Amino acid sequence: MSRALPGAATGSDREIDRRILEVFRSNEGVVSGARLSRLLAISRTAVWKHINTLKSLGYVIEAVPSQGYRLVSVPDLLTSAELSAGLPLQRIGTRITCLQEVDSTNLVAYRLAEQGAVEGTIVIADHQTGGKGRLGRRWESPAGVNLYCSVILRPQILPLYAPQLTFVSSVAVVDAILRTTNLQPVIKWPNDVLVNGQKVAGLLNEMSAETERVDFLVLGIGVNINMNREQFPVDLRHPATSLAIEAGRKIDRLQFARVLLESLDALYAAYLAEGYEPLRRRWLAHSAVMGRTVRVTSGENVVVGVVEGIDEHGGLVLSCAGGRHERVLAGDVAICNEGEACS
């Protein structure tokens, strides 16, 4: 079940809204109705209707008598028009579906992908009632404070290389945090982004594939942006936080989401053009576990060793006691502090 945002419109209407916002962004001060009408090839009445639609979504737009319109402020609401306005996106984010409430953005995106949605389509929700993390765990998803999004990709790769795409997501999230805050995020294998040792983002890949090809991948990204302490459940398996808590200030969700889209698009384009190795190096540069002694638990199986890197299938490569090497494809990682027994 999903609910659209207030003021949801047709694709052509959303495109006009997006272009109006682009005009406002590229012009300081007042923009005349006549100019908007000319640039958009619509009537002055249609311009007025679209301005009112944007107002209904929370945009503060001032009508200046005999001059035109001035954009005063934008809402803390993630809309497709605002997210993509002015961004030179090649693939990821060229189609955006923004919903008020969903069970899970991954479920919505998966259904869209099955129906033939093009590569780069993104589903974003303000609230999830059934957000999920790795291994079927629940992802707390309150309204109005965080980013919950899923991206549809159709890479021409073998299914065994699909885990590489999780690293596109994690590096993009790190890049967005670095560019919008003064925080220093790190990545904990396989799919967590941490700030000050606490989780701020989780990533989840889901795939539809045949033996020799990937039909599509859905990259799920959840980032705790403006949650406060009271909004975290008391039964969390691992310490969690939000960017706002760690930065000591509210974070602009729209700015963060736009930077993330830009980074995802650029990283995916680089991956397609240059392959996995440059992406692997970037992931390792931000790794919380590289060179550290870790304990990896998967069911009853426990492996302890020093992290040497990640392989071409996304596996964690460990140097263990006795000089043997272990390759771990799944599990929960705990970093062993110096002097701590880690067995």
TrEMBL record:
Q: Which organism is it from?
A: Geotalea uraniireducens
From the Swiss-Prot or TrEMBL record, give the protein name: Bifunctional ligase/repressor BirA
Q: Which residues bind DNA?
A: 33-52
Its taxonomic path starts at: Bacteria, Pseudomonadati, Thermodesulfobacteriota, Desulfuromonadia, Geobacterales
Which reactions are catalysed by this chain? Answer: biotin + L-lysyl-[protein] + ATP = N(6)-biotinyl-L-lysyl-[protein] + AMP + diphosphate + H(+)
What the protein does comes down to: Acts both as a biotin--[acetyl-CoA-carboxylase] ligase and a repressor.
Q: Does the keyword Repressor apply?
A: yes
NCBIfam families assigned to the protein according to its UniProt record, in alphabetical order: birA_ligase
Record key words, sorted: ATP-binding, Biotin, DNA-binding, Ligase, Nucleotide-binding, Repressor, Transcription, Transcription regulation
User: In its keyword annotation, does this UniProt entry include Transmembrane helix?
Assistant: no
Coiled-coil boundaries:
none
Which residues does the annotation say bind biotin? 104-106, 128, 199
HAMAP family for this protein: Bifunct_BirA
From what superkingdom does this record's organism come?
Answer: Bacteria
